[in-house]
Write a structure and sequence with these properties.
With 164 residues, the protein is an alpha+beta fold. The protein has 5 helices and 6 strands. It folds into 2 domains: 3-92, K homology (KH) domain (GMP Synthetase, Chain A, domain 3), CATH 3.30.300; 100-160, R3H-like domain (Ribosomal Protein S8, Chain: A, domain 1, 2-Layer Sandwich), CATH 3.30.1370. Helix 4 (94-116) packs across helix 5. It is elongated and about 55 Å long.
Length: 164
C-alpha cells in the first residue's frame, strides 16, 4: 500500500468520526496479520470518554465492524481487485483481544472435532469473524470449515475433512 492510501484511510476515518462529533487522532500502520497485509487504522482512545469508546465499539463489536465495513467499501470503491486494500479499524485494543479470543475458539473447536469426529458449530460470529476463523483453520490438516444458515443466524461449521 502506498503512503497516499494510508493517508486517505486516516483522513476518511477522521472525517467520519468528526461527523459523529468525536475528535480523536487516527494513525495508520501496515500489519501482516492472519489474512495477509492489512492497513490498521487505530483510533486513539486517550481523548475519549469510556462511554464514547463503548459506543464506538458497540455490542459485540458491531459498531466497530460497521465502521470497518464502510472503510473497506468506501476506500476500495472503483479500484480493481489487485489494487484493493484491507482495512482493520482498531480501538482500545478491541481487535487484538477479539483476535486472540477467535484463535482460542478455533483451537477448541478443532480439538473437539478431532476428539469426537462430529461437526461443531460456532455461533454468534460476524461475517468478518467467520472469515478469520475459516482462515485460522485452513492450515489445520484433516479439518474443513463451511458456513451454514442465513444472516443473522449464520454459523461456522468445523468438521473432519472428507476422505478422498
Amino acid at each position: 500500500m502506498t503512503k497516499p492510501a494510508l493517508t486517505s484511510g486516516v483522513e476518511w476515518l477522521t472525517a467520519l468520526l468528526a461527523l459523529q462529533g468525536v475528535e480523536a487522532p487516527v494513525s495508520a500502520a501496515m500489519v501482516n496479520d492472519d489474512s495477509g497485509d492489512s492497513c490498521w487504522l487505530t483510533i486513539a482512545d486517550q481523548a475519549l470518554t469510556a462511554d464514547q469508546v463503548e459506543t464506538l465499539i458497540g455490542p459485540g463489536g458491531s459498531v466497530l465492524d460497521s465502521i470497518q465495513y464502510l472503510a473497506n467499501t468506501t476506500l476500495n470503491l472503483g479500484k480493481p481487485d489487485g489494487e484493493q486494500q484491507a482495512f482493520t479499524i482498531e480501538l482500545a485494543g478491541y481487535r487484538a483481544r477479539r483476535l486472540a479470543e477467535l484463535r482460542q475458539m478455533a483451537e477448541a473447536a478443532a480439538d473437539q472435532v478431532r476428539a469426537s469426529g462430529q461437526e461443531y458449530e460456532l455461533t454468534g460470529l460476524s461475517a468478518a469473524e467467520r472469515r478469520q476463523v475459516h482462515h485460522f483453520l485452513s492450515t489445520q490438516a484433516g479439518l474443513a470449515t463451511f458456513s451454514r444458515g442465513k444472516e443473522p443466524d449464520r454459523r461456522l461449521v468445523v468438521c473432519l475433512e472428507p476422505s478422498p
